[in-house]
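Example S7 (structure tokens).
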């Protein structure tokens, strides 16, 4: 609390009071001195009137000379306290009071000047800050755009990169099946292995770019959990046997039979984890354990029930090299490997776990790891899946008719714009003595279908100029002649 302003009497009244007191004293002394009693009543009145006049004059004088200039000064100081710098009016008294007023006004001028300078500095600073903020914002959006452009570029390049890789691998496959001498075979097998490593690396880089560009699609289709996971783990059996380690697969009986989700992405996650577990384990075992929480039904506001959600956990345990505690958090970062020497021994890029984590999170799940150096590691991925009662329909089964029972060679239409891919497909199909027609795009495919005998199967590329695979398939499906003709999508 600010102290309440002290009450004070004006200087003029003090002077008047003092002068009055002085004159009363003079009158009293005169009366006391009057031994002869010659002081008349009239003289007393005159003396009092005189006393009052003198007091009044002194009051006026002090008002003009002291009180008013001081009051103006006080007003000026109050204004300064309130942040208003304005000069005060000065009485021309030619004395210290006028000097004081002049000094005050000079101080005000000085304050005004300083204030203006401060304001200019502040404006300048604000301008600079605004300019820098704009520059930073521009730099940041340029950097973001560059990063997005990089991810977009890689995601777009996916097709362009995979197509020649496919050509390379396909041609190597076909050549490896021909007559070769030992040296040629060995050389080609080395080329084949290198091409596969390159393809794996390419796939990882492209997948990560796709995820980072926000272009990775997660499907929602019904599938059976057990076969997808079991097949995936089984595909590592040969590699585990080669390293003389046991590979176990256990699925809890409480795990749902069929769920809705993306089997391909689930496979990719499990493949990454099992492949690492086998890669970093020299003795002992790798165990894959599938468990699930009982499905929980979430009621919707309109009293319908959403399909029950089960948390399916996939645990991959190994008795391998283990990971240093300090590195545990960073192994999910891209291009991060826990141990340089181990990695040099086993190879790898440091992308697998980054992709695993992002794919898991894209599907609403999470991944955790526990590990002890020299003892082993356990990776656990938990994914929420809507459970469905009916077992999902198994993959479309096309009944296989033995070649000996064919009345004529099957007629296949290959729709593919890329010449290398055409060569690869033709090389593979020709070995089975099929009758093959090739169309370079969707429109050509439709005219082939109109002009020639009916086909038994169409192998359809997806991305093509003029008319792409999806649009062509829609047109074919609408035509009653071809509504049940099998069409297989084919892409590099
Ligand atoms: P990569 O295996 O290609 O190096 P990942 O992203 O799959 O890349 O793994 C990153 C790192 O995490 C590996 O380099 C390795 O150091 C460590 N790591 C992953 N899985 C295991 C495991 N099962 N046991 C020991 N270390 C592992």
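Recovered sequence:
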């Amino acid at each position: 609390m600010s102290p309440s302003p002290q009450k004070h009497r004006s200087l003029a009244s003090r002077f008047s009071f003092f002068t009055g007191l002085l004159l009363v004293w003079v009158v009293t002394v005169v009366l006391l001195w009057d031994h002869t009693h010659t002081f008349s009543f009239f003289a007393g009145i005159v003396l009092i009137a005189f006393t009052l006049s003198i007091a009044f004059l002194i009051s006026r004088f002090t008002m003009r000379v002291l009180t008013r200039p001081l009051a103006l000064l006080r007003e000026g100081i109050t204004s300064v306290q309130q942040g208003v710098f304005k000069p005060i009016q000065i009485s021309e008294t030619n004395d210290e009071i006028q000097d004081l007023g002049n000094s005050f006004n000079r101080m005000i001028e000085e304050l005004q000047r300083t204030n203006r300078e401060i304001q200019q500095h502040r404006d300048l600073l604000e301008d600079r800050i605004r300019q820098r903020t704009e520059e930073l914002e521009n730099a940041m959006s340029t950097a973001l755009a560059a990063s997005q452009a990089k991810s977009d570029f890689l995601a777009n390049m996916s097709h362009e990169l995979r197509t020649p890789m496919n050509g390379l691998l396909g041609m190597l496959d076909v050549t490896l099946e021909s007559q070769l001498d030992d040296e040629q075979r060995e050389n080609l097998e080395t080329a084949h292995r290198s091409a596969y490593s390159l393809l794996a690396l390419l796939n990882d880089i492209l997948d990560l770019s796709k995820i980072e560009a926000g272009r990775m699609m997660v499907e929602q289709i019904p599938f059976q959990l057990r076969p997808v996971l079991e097949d995936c783990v089984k595909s590592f059996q040969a590699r585990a046997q080669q390293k003389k380690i046991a590979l176990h697969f256990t699925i809890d009986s409480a795990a749902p039979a069929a769920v809705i989700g993306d089997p391909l992405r689930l496979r990719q996650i499990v493949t990454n984890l099992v492949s690492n577990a086998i890669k970093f384990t020299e003795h002992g075992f790798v165990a894959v354990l599938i468990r699930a929480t009982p499905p929980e039904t979430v009621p919707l506001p309109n009293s319908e029930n959403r399909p029950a959600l089960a948390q399916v956990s996939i645990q991959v345990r190994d008795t391998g090299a283990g990971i240093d505690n300090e590195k545990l958090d960073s192994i999910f970062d891209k291009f991060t490997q826990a141990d340089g020497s181990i990695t040099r021994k086993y190879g790898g890029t440091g992308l697998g776990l980054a992709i695993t984590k992002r794919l898991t999170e894209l599907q609403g799940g999470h991944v955790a790891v526990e590990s002890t150096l020299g003892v082993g590691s356990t990776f656990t991925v938990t994914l929420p899946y809507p459970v469905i009662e009916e077992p999902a329909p198994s993959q479309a089964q096309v009944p296989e008719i033995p070649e000996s029972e064919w009345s004529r060679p099957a007629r296949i239409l290959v729709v593919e714009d890329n010449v290398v891919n055409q060569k690869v497909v033709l090389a593979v199909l020709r070995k089975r003595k099929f009758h093959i027609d090739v169309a370079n795009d969707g429109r050509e495919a439709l005219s082939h279908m109109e002009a020639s005998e009916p086909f038994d199967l169409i192998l359809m590329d997806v991305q093509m100029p003029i008319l792409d695979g999806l649009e062509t398939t829609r047109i074919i499906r609408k035509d009653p002649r071809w509504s049940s003709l099998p069409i297989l999508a084919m892409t590099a």
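Notes on this example. Residues 1-6 have pLDDT under 50 and may be disordered.
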